[in-house]
């Protein structure tokens, strides 16, 4: 006899039981973002990419060549965005750092990691848990198509469809 998984038991129980529709809905519930969270993501400029939401900060946060420090203006931008996300319960995200294509690939990987970490540190500073902010340096491997080189010195924030 095949082993029953939790999903099978729940589906079978929902099908066989004569219960209120709420129990059936509970068995079919999938985690995801709320309407309020999606509305905030849209207002902040996030776009759906597959199952996730992505915000490329190249129009808000750019880095000087070979630098990973945030300017005072960029710090304010990240702080405001982080507070807005945290305020609606969006607490898990991935921060991706990028570089332009100039220079050594190994150096660019490290630089992109430092850029992502600078943004992640700001997010943790406003109240997000460090383990919920994943940092990833992509170097120059994911350039934006058709933009100037300096626009690739950026960070993107990816929010999973929790």
From TrEMBL:
InterPro entries given in the database record: Bact_OuterMem_StrucFunc (IPR050330), OMP_bac (IPR006664), OmpA-like (IPR006665), OmpA-like_sf (IPR036737)
All residue ranges annotated as the OmpA-like domain in the record: 50-162
Source species, domain of life: Bacteria
Subcellular compartments: Cell outer membrane
Swiss-Prot/TrEMBL keywords: Membrane
PANTHER family reported for this sequence: LIPOPROTEIN YFIB-RELATED (PTHR30329:SF17), STATOR ELEMENT OF FLAGELLAR MOTOR COMPLEX (PTHR30329)
Protein name in UniProt: OmpA family protein
